[in-house]
Amino acid sequence: MVASSPHVEEHQWFAIVNPVAGNGRGLDEFPRISKLLREQQIHCEAVFSEHKFHAVELTVEAVRRGYRRIIAVGGDGTLHEVVNGLFIQQVVPPSEVLLAVIAVGSGNDWIRMFGIPQNCADAIRAIREEHSFLQDVGVVSYEEAKYRQSRYMVNVAGAGYEAQVVRCFNHLKKKGRRGRWLYTWSVIRSFFRYKPTGTKVWVDGKRVYNDLLLSIALGVGKYNGGGIQQLPDAVADDGMFDISLVRPIHFWHIIFRFHKLFNGKIYEIRHILRERGGTIRIESSPEIEVELDGELLGHTPLEFTMLRRAIRVVVSREFLESME
Ligand SMILES: Nc1ncnc2c1ncn2[C@@H]1O[C@H](COP(=O)(O)OP(=O)(O)OP(=O)(O)O)[C@@H](O)[C@H]1O
Question: Is the domain of 126 the same as that of 150?
Fold first, then answer.
């Protein structure tokens, strides 16, 4: 193991700031965040990410330089990149780096699980308190351009309709569309355009599904889609994925039960089935796409495995108390 380089103090933080997170909130809020960090005496070097995957590189470099405390200032995509950087670097085990999030993204789903405040001032106070938790990390193997690739996930993965929603959302954003209803519009538009596919799912070696499937979500965390509790029973350190399988469903059926998506009662919708396991395989004909933590990757066949308690994250005191 390489010791911290002499110019980085033990308690110094490295902040990776995504200026485009939350439609520019990252950039707009940065002066205030910087001031709040100073007020809380959190010594910090801050760097802006300049392009997609830059946060991966910045993380690798920060750990190499001796940083053992990193703050991701952004949304779930920024956190996803930082965590992937933690697994790419070879200097220390990923869990030796303390990771905190100041959420300035659009969805901010990861923080919901751990009771981290949306409000920057409160989030920074939580960082100061340094309550930490070892959470599981999923490893996903997927296919892209005929090659097998793998990536780490920190919150929720979705395949099928869920990935189509992300594709549609990204497409509309690229076309310059903005606004708080853009995601909802992507959800509705994709619902009518996406066709369920014949899908097989194996959990821990046992085939649990072989039928038409609209969507599947696998979670270390509970929330995706900006507050939907798609995996309400997920536990972030049990070494297992919670899985929700969504069979083909009529639009009106879901609309009348819409509140159940948000109140933890999603499995009361009879088209949604729950599974749980440590290794998952998904095959589909035709192929379906997969998104991880809101980032679109490749397609089936997919294999998921879990790394137990693999990263150390700053959480709220309330969350830790709820786990006791
Ligand atoms: N300077 C940059 N220019 C363009 N894209 C960037 C830049 N820095 C980071 N990115 C990319 O911005 C994307 C969105 O970031 P992020 O997910 O953190 O924000 P968000 O989409 O607003 O939040 P959420 O995922 O919580 O909804 C990521 O895919 C990241 O790779």
Answer: no
